[in-house]
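Subject: Sanity check before I submit

Could someone independently write out the structure tokens for this chain? I want to compare against mine line by line before I put it in a report. The sequence has 424 residues.
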Amino acid sequence: MGGSMLKHRLKAFASILKRRYVVVILACFLSLFTAFISDALLLFRAAYFLIMAAVFGFLWTQLNSTRGITARFDTSTSVLTAGESLNITYSVENSSSFPRLWLEVSVASTIYSNPVQQIISLLPGRTKELSFSVSCPNRGLYALGPVNVTTWDPFRLLKHRKAYGDEKEIIVYPETEELPFFDIELGKDSISTRQRRLQDLLSSQMSGVRPYVAGDDFRRIHWPSTARMGNLMVKIPEPDISNQTWLVLDMQEEGFPSARDNIELLVKAAASVAKKLVEAGRSAGLIYYSGERHFVENSSDKHHLWSLLTEMALAQPMGRMPVYEVIRHEISVISSGLAVIVFSHRTDPELEPVIRHLKGQGVDCRLIQAEPPGHQDKEALYPLVAALRASRVKAYVITPGKPLSQGMRDHADLVSEGETAASK
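---
Independent answer below. Compare away.
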């Protein structure tokens, strides 16, 4: 009990010592005490210098404080895609009657580890606008802000800091890629594409309504809701259950650091497939387990793509359940649809019979497999792909560092190698 209390007090004392002004005061007293004991003229002069520097620094930070300073920031957008740059603009205004010298301005954010700092000076009544760009290479949800304005004394012993503005959320969608070799005509429909689109437009079956957006077909306007809301409202068509495509994403926790590249590759592939499906007017939904169940309903509405990309942007490999167990848990949902596309970064032998079971229920199944980095997993890859190929299930092998379209184009060669390895 006494040891834990002493440890707590030492931690509290260490946190106090982190404050520079406390260190300055302690240094002044220590130098004076040493000077009196030793009666050395040099130490007295050093003590006087420290005391004068501390007093001068205190007066400087009070006179050159952030009183009268206002700051704000803005961004070009709050939504962007991985690999794009975010433009950040911020302004600092001095509404006091005194100039402000050597203001250190920075914008806090979780996008970067080291914030960009700029030193400015402002005359009374003046405003200075600054801007910079930051690259966003990784998907996810980030915080931007506030603007931190810091003033130091000339010796950088004492400082005064104030934050302006609130945090702003920045969402970075996963990068997508065109997939010219990926066939999205999943399953066999009895209705032609033209008839299906017309049915979606004119069908009275709808899952809800949303505000009209420029480019929406006027035939989808829901007039009762428009009259009630006072604004144009359009129907969100109820997805045809027999035409649903489920994207099942493997978010099982990676076993080794190099697997992170494969997971990012899978998210990119899933986002690219979702984009191609929705832009073609086909219905798509998303299922993955990452600590808890994440589920996005099927929809063919073109604005549904942003719901899918948002969920994929936040997906993290924290799941304990392998992807074949996810499929078993969701079998009633998946089997009611037309097709399922499984995105896996592990070569689990249990995956093949689960996919064959779905195939037997009339569901068009596909596997997009990231090439595993481990030697043993690579050896298990070819038999898995060959077994699925023998069951007339399309399997694509994608590799980190290569374009997705190239990975799918090389798929036939990889399967041939797999069939040869499996036959041996």
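---
OP: Matches mine. For the report I'm noting this point. Confidence is low (pLDDT under 50) at residues 189-204, 410-424.
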